[in-house]
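Tutorial, part two.
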Amino acid sequence: REAVRARLRSVHPVGLLLSGGVDSGSVAAVAGSLVKSGEAECPEFRAYSFAFEELVECDERAVSGPLAEHWGIPVTDVPADDLWPLKDYPEHGPDRDDPYLFVYQPLLDACLDAARADGCALVLSGDRGDLIAGESVYDLPSLLWTGRWATLLREMRTLSDWQGTSTGTIVGRQLWRPVRQELWPPDRAPRLRRLAGQLKRRARRSAGPGEPPWLAGRWGDLDLSAIRAQSDRSPPDLGAAARQRYRSVFSPMHMWGVGWSERMSARSGVGFSDAWSDRRMVEFVLAIPQRVLNTVGDEKKLVRRAVAPLLPREVHRGLKKTDPYPLYSRALRERAVPTIEQLFAGSRSAGREWLDSVVLADHYRGVADGASEHHCLWWAISTEAWLRAFH
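Running the prediction step on this input gives:
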């Protein structure tokens, strides 16, 4: 509540990118209560939501609408069906600072532009709610140490069903590995730990990396060990689950993402802020047992309990983020096909020996014909767009 209140101090209206999920929904509920009680120090609080009329499976207004209505929050519905990835290319392209291009950049730009047109100087979001209060951080060792064995067995079986793996695999990944980390913390016998890590990485390489098939030879000489080591850093005095939470929150990629969000908002002339990124929130979630925060089958349970008094029951039960993947799929296979083919023709990445353009083009032709796309395909697309714009 204090993290949200601190971000409502503004002489201009404040906006919120509101979905039907727990993260932005919680921000909306708290902000709405603060506005109603007169504690919000801004002249107006507004929300902006994606509006899908054709791809109705992506639409979240059945939840976000009643939530906003409950607190009297004005909502602008931004038409989304025709704002597919790479719409109006090269508009909505990547930033000069790095090659990352948000898949749904045209849709995000439309929301931020609408907020700016309404006089908003600051736009909030639920960006890092997953990292702070969700993610797949399950504290099975804590259930073991505290004698909650029935709960432990139930969660392991649920994880096994969800992931389609054996219970033995879940025991190894979610129980034995974290227990071993607690019994053998990172600061104990570091040389032996480094040797074990080298052997593990060698075994992974021999098993074959799950990298995109179009990567060219120059990547084979790249040593990523220093980057991995930086990403794996966490305080040794935390438990295994809390260390996993710490690595999730402070990973270089996720910390970079905050700066990216600020730049994208600035392009539309508004500021960006995320209550979930408040230092006090991070300190709190690292200080409590992770089993209290998040459990298998009851994701973000502490957040849901906290905001329950602020929401109508049907809204509280319906809080669930929807993936707009159908909009991306439509772009890949229909509306953005000429643009993507143009990007891959005379590939700038291939010219730098970053990838094999023939393999990439063959893969994309299969995707355009209905095959499944590699999860790294968008990285290749956004890198091509960046190179053409700035190099």
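The beta strands are 14-17, 45-51, 75-79, 122-124, 271-273. In part three we will examine how such features are distributed along the chain.
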